[in-house]
Specification:
CATH superfamily of the largest domain: Tetratricopeptide repeat domain
Radius of gyration: 21 Å
Protein name: MalT-like TPR region domain-containing protein
Keywords: Membrane, Transmembrane, Transmembrane helix
CATH class of the largest domain: Mainly Alpha
Distance between the termini: 44 Å
CATH topology of the largest domain: Serine Threonine Protein Phosphatase 5, Tetratricopeptide repeat
Helix content: over 70%
Oligomer: single chain
Number of domains: 2
Structural class: mainly alpha
Number of helices: 9
Length: 171
C-alpha cells in the first residue's frame, strides 16, 4: 500500500532505530524494528504498488497508475489477488493506449489469476468483448459478452453491455 519511496524511507528509519536500540541494549525493541523492516520488504513483494495504482485508475489517471504499476518490479511474486489486479490495471492501461492485443492478454491473465468481485470480472470480460469485437473476432466477443451477462455487475455497466450487444447483433 506504500510507494517504493515511502518504503525506502520507512525501512531506513527503522534500520537507524534498530541500530540505536542495539547499541543501548534494548534487544526487544531492536527485534521489533527488524521485524518491521522484514514486513515492509515482504509487503513490497506481496503487494507492490498495485493498490495505489488501482486507486489512480479509479480516478481515470492512467499515466499515474502506470507509473505506480511500474514500481512493482517483480509481479510474479505478488500475492494472488494483487497479481490479478496488477494484470487488470495493465489491461486497462493498454486498452486506454489502444494496444488491443496486449490489453486482451492482460485481461485474460487477470481473470485466470482471480479477480475478487463479480463487478471487476464483468469489467474485464466486457473489455475483452469490446476488444475482440474491434479485432473482428466476433465469436470470442460474444462469448465474453454472454459470460458478462451471467455476473452481478453495477448498473453503470449496463449501457456498455447493451452497446456491445447491439454491435454484435447488427454485426
Amino acid at each position: 500500500m506504500y510507494s517504493n519511496t515511502v518504503r525506502i524511507v520507512l525501512i531506513s528509519i527503522a534500520a537507524l532505530v534498530a541500530i540505536f536500540f542495539g547499541t543501548v541494549g534494548l534487544w526487544l525493541q531492536m527485534g521489533a524494528a527488524i521485524a518491521f523492516i522484514v514486513l515492509m520488504g515482504l509487503g513490497y513483494f506481496l503487494n507492490g504498488a498495485v493498490y495505489l495504482a488501482f486507486r489512480k485508475l479509479g480516478k481515470n489517471d492512467f499515466d499515474r497508475a502506470e507509473e505506480l504499476l511500474k514500481m512493482t518490479k517483480h509481479p510474479k511474486y505478488l500475492g494472488r489477488t494483487q497479481k490479478a489486479y496488477y494484470w487488470f490495471i495493465t489491461g486497462c492501461i493498454e486498452a486506454n493506449k489502444e494496444n488491443l492485443q496486449p490489453a486482451a492478454n492482460a485481461f485474460e491473465t487477470a481473470l485466470r489469476s482471480g479477480l475478487r468481485t463479480e463487478n471487476d470480472k464483468a469489467i474485464a470480460m466486457l473489455n475483452l468483448a469490446s476488444i475482440f469485437y474491434s479485432l473482428g473476432q466476433t465469436e470470442k466477443a460474444a462469448k465474453y459478452l454472454e459470460a458478462t451477462k451471467q455476473l452481478k455487475y453495477s448498473q453503470g455497466l449496463q449501457s456498455e453491455v447493451d452497446h456491445i450487444s447491439n454491435l454484435l447483433a447488427n454485426g
